Amino acid sequence: MQKKILLTDCPDAKGLIAKITNICFKHQLNVTKNDEFVDREQGRFFMRTALEGNFNDATLLEDLDMALPEGAERRLVASGRKRLVLMVTRESHCLGDILIKCYAGALDAEIAAVIGNHPDLGALVEKFDIPFHCLPAEGLDRTRHEAQVIALVDEYRPDYLVLAKYMRVLTPDFVTRYRRRIVNIHHSFLPAFVGARPYQQAFMRGVKIIGATAHFVTDDLDEGPIIEQDITRVDHGHSAADMAAAGRDVEKLVLSRALELLLQERVFIHGNKTVVFK
Prior knowledge:
The chain has 2 domains: 2-78, ACT domain (Alpha-Beta Plaits); 82-276, Formyl transferase, N-terminal domain (Rossmann fold, 3-Layer(aba) Sandwich), CATH 3.40.50.170. The protein has helices spanning 16-26, 57-67, 93-104, 122-126, 142-156, 172-177, 198-205, 240-263; strands at 2-11, 30-39, 44-53, 73-78, 82-88, 109-116, 132-134, 160-163, 182-186, 209-216, 226-233, 267-270, 273-276. The chain starts with a strand and ends with a strand. Helix 1 (16-26) runs antiparallel to helix 2 (57-67) and helix 7 crosses helix 8 (240-263). With 278 residues, it is of the alpha/beta class.
């Protein structure tokens, strides 16, 4: 008995749920979970269908193509463990959280490797028997450094690249190469306080909440489609350093929740927004 997930993204029309589920029934597939959403402003329909049975992928997709409206996108993906490559600089809290959760099975992923531009986190990674590669950027322009990173990433063939506090801006060529596959954690409740030193910015503004945002990486700095967010409360007694300390706890929780959603194929990208089935 195989388990797969059917992801449908198409113009909205009457009877789509019935059409899709009837085709699944025709193929003797059992629907174990179904979620759907209609963006009425854009006239777009989204559906995530968890299936089990014996699959003939090509025939199933052909039948769906004949039933769905023009402009439909559909994917049939296997349930199961995905591969991650993590990219880091010097901060350990997000990296450590992901390492522990993958080790314990709380995240259903294989960490294929960790790539850092400083050696600081190598000893932590090696405790989990995972390859750590240090690729210093000093003395290299961004393109030459990224060429080294790309060579390593492509060797491991990950499903997703996770920027677990990787404190370098990526070039458009790098982002395009791994389009919709790079996930970043930003230490701010976007769209507020983009770029560097957001906790100092928040402190200067006198905010009462701080947060973190996990999002897909695009060419626009810290403006990619948002996957997950959360906040914690602060007050006038918190210094910028206090805010940063509180923010680290939020960052690791938000990033791990975003990864869980992606690993379970619960995220649709829709323009610069997401539809997330929780």
